[in-house]
Amino acid sequence: MEINAKQFFSRYKIEPRVIEDLTKRIKFSTIKKGKYFINYGEKMNRIGILLSGLLVSRYETESGDEIVSKFYYPQGDIIVVDYQSFKKQSSSNEAIRASEDSYLMTLSYDNFNFLLNNHSSLKEMALSFLEESYLNALERIRSLQILSREQRIRNFMEAHPILMQKITATDKASYLGMHRNIFSKKLKSL
After folding, report:
1. Hey, is 102 helix, strand or coil?
2. How far is 111 from 145, CA to CA, in rounded Å?
3. What's the CA gap between 53 and 89, in Å, rounded?
4. Are the C-beta atoms of 28 and 105 separated by less than 8 Å?
5. Alpha helices, DSSP H, located in 51-108
6. What's the burial of 158, exposed, middle or buried (CB within 10 Å: 0-12/13-18/19+)?
7. Is 0.85 surpassed by the pTM of this model?
């Protein structure tokens, strides 16, 4: 897959000199279906920008169950990162795995920090992405706390129609905080 990094970043109204510096530091990578962007216990040493494909983030509970926490896809969240591990340079408590072949632009931890420290427009863009991610997380927490199962499923279907066809019922149910059998039964009744 051929992607022009300069063209991609020009969509975000970044100054040409900043785009030039960015494109010098970016690497392109392909993650095959079933392979990890990061696995449990690894240190997050890069941040990704998803150009195509689908990645699913999971964390493990104390009982060993895996819970789906996030989906990364081009029409939704494109910044692929366990931000806590990335920021603290600590072991990740998440695993981010490709559910289909995925293509990303990546920036190393050092290059990311260099760019933020030297280009205020990138710092503003990064803060905007972080704020959006934070607000999405708050909305998800609220929905798990106050919405019925049917309402959660309807909201998910409206917000992520593409994912309804691309991910398993088990992953959708996990993300929505319910067992797969309950999810399937409630989905049929809608």
Report:
1. strand
2. 39
3. 26
4. yes
5. 83-88
6. exposed
7. yes
